[in-house]
Amino acid sequence: MRRDQVTDIPAGLPFLALTSGLAAAHSIAGPRLTVAALSAIALLVLALRRPYRYRLSLVVAMAAAGLAFADNRLRIAHDIDQLIAGGRERFVRIEAPIRTGWENRGEPPYSLRVDRFRVFLDAVEHDVPFPLTIYSPSPPPPVGRAARIGAEGFLRRSERGTLYLSVKSARLLAHSGDANRWSAAVWSRTLQQRLDEMAAEDTTLARPVALAKALLLGRSEQLPDDLRESYRRGGTYHLLVFSGMQISLVAVAITLALRMFQWPRLADWSLLTVAIIAPWFAGGEPSATRAGWMIGLYALSRILHRPTPTENLFFVAAILRLAMHPEELTNAGFALTYAATGGLIFVGKPLVRLMRERGIPLAAIGYGVGAELATAPLTLFYFNQLVIAGSVVTLIISPLLSSIFGLSIVACVLLPLSTVATETALRSITPLDAAAGLVNHLAAEVLGVVRLAASPPLITVVLSFLALLLIILFVQRQSIRPLAALVLLVPVTISFIGMRGVASAPSIELLDVGQGEAILLRDGIDAVLVDGGGRRGDVSFGRRVLLPLLLERGVRELDAVMLSHPHPDHCEGLQAVIEHLHVRRLLLSGRHFREDCSQTLFQAARERRVDVQLFERTPFVVSGRMHFDPILPRLRYKRSTLNNGSVVLRVELGGRRVLLTGDIEKDAERDLAEDEAGRISADVLKIAHHGSKSSSTAPFLDAVGPRMALISSGPRNLFGHPSPEVIDRLEQRLRVIGRTDTGGSIRVEFRGQALHLTRQIDTPQRPH
């Protein structure tokens, strides 16, 4: 009989059981009863004294634990939703511990993120163990050494599902308590404040200070937009924030230094100290915390004289993290952190050994290959991008960023001692920053390391990682693991060969871009995009939200991109489309051509050699399939100038007529109903201004006479769109109303005389 001791159980088995329990919680009715049943089974198996009883009992118990953890979080989330529903129209008061200071990118709102909070409502106190972001429209009072924050405002859930508190005035904010002066979080806040003061006094230090804060303090909100985009295009954005790499660098440096002096025990304790303090120093950044767990467990195993295989430590760290934060199972950061680390350990390590045995030069590159294989399906699923040869680029750029990180430490150490020396250290960052920018530029423009593609189906990603995990657990020969890791290329292959490039029928689709508007028109291989959604100041919106929606529909080329009017919620996302997809022409309004967003699109089009045209009053055709009849405003309206000045498009597509109205309001609608009644009749009407009560007047609806209405607005948006008054007017006239706030992306296909409206299932959007 084989031995079956608890110490013989590979940690991958309980990890697999725990994640299975976490994943199953959403689909099991009566999870508490199931938890009780599984716990009883675990005890029964343990009492049977059969072979592998410890192993089987632990697996069942961990599945029960995962189910219990997830069910508890789901219940808390449900209670929060009930709380929000009850407090939408009134203030709530919250209190929360403070780790970091307020963030601001040069304009309101100011934001502060807390890890957990208490909310007081109807004389009842509720403890909420979820992150919350507090927004203030005016400069808040300095945090200083305060330990807690109190605030009053509207508690809401954003379009992404995250919680936030909207505060009307900074007077409704109050900091209290006095944090421990030896707290790492207080040191971090103090350093941040001093660095900000230096950047304010000398603007040439702004960029080096922003880099130092990002790499050392985990504060990346002030990184310039061009720097962010450079790293994104180069496939190295993951290196730009405080993460496990920085913790590892500090830990390795301290360990090597102490072991050089023959102090191994002190080295182990120092390693544990760094693993504990560093995440707090970075404000509790999740990526830093996850790295701290892994490094801390390694140090603890050495201190306790219980050397544990790296593979087991990896799984134990993941188990502990999920036990404390079960909601992270579907989090992109968690998945990528552990996939990259697992790729290094389970694929890269045996691959390097194999390459060295065969005398292959530069065998160390095998570690990067392992990490790339493990993260490729996830970057495609979460971000619609595949980084090819990213390990090589990372290998080149890491020393540069490590040097910037080292100079940032030097600058912060010198800060209390000498301003001149601190400035010298910060200015030394500039040439390294320029070199890193050059590497990213070559990687993006010459090598093309980042490729865009559709997201692979979730089931293929899950099955691929499950297959690799089973191979890791049950195949003893490590030399097979690099070959077995090829199963991770299955989702990658599906992403590239499974993209649909041809529409099955002429269609119009309102893409789910939140509180904004993006309309995709398709007929066969032809595709036109009207507006692109966006949010003011969110430069990553197009890359993060709009492009994935287009790619998953097989759209890599656009015959035309059109802008109805240059408001951010229609315009901001289009720059990324022009930069990343093949766009044949861009059409803008001549009346709004001098507006900032129009100029930004014009410059992007010139750089990409896209033909730019101004709308005229004459109809035009796109690729012989789509007929557009622009209706330009004849007046310059005094009220809501940009909205009422939207270009209105009547589109003939698949034998049907569609009217796209931008954000026109009642003034423009009145003129159209009176002067253009013969041109605005349509089968499908895109409701103006997201269903605002300022639009969709009765005379205009009567003049259009649509069979179907479509509304683009964000769920739980702050403007209350669509207005109940508008919905009432539409319901009196129509039987079919499509809404993105309740149905996500919606598509209308034209098949003969029939109009088919369907809801489209998109990959959930997650923040970059």
List keywords for this structure.
27 helices; eight-stranded mixed β-sheet; 48% helix; 16% strand; globular
Task: Describe how the helices and strands are arranged.
Blueprint (H helix, E strand, L loop, with lengths): L11 H13 L6 H17 L5 H35 L4 E6 L12 E5 L2 E5 L2 E5 L3 E5 L11 E10 L5 E4 L6 E4 L7 H18 L4 H12 L7 H9 L10 H17 L3 H18 L4 H18 L6 H15 L7 H26 L7 H19 L1 E3 L2 H25 L4 H9 L1 H19 L2 E3 L5 H17 L6 H4 L4 H9 L9 E4 L8 E5 L2 E5 L10 H11 L5 E2 L1 E3 L5 H4 L2 H7 L1 E2 L1 E4 L7 H12 L3 E4 L5 E3 L3 E6 L9 H4 L3 E6 L2 E5 L5 H10 L8 E3 L11 H7 L3 E4 L12 H10 L2 E4 H4 L2 E6 L2 E6 L9
Parallel strand pairs: 5-7, 13-15, 14-16, 15-17, 17-18, 22-23, 23-24, 24-25
Antiparallel strand pairs: 1-3, 1-6, 2-5, 3-4, 6-7, 6-8, 9-10, 11-12, 11-26, 12-13, 19-20, 20-21, 21-22, 26-27
Helix pairs in contact: 1-3, 1-10, 2-3, 4-5, 4-8, 5-13, 6-15, 7-8, 7-9, 8-9, 9-10, 10-11, 11-12, 12-13, 12-18, 13-14, 13-15, 19-21, 21-22, 24-25
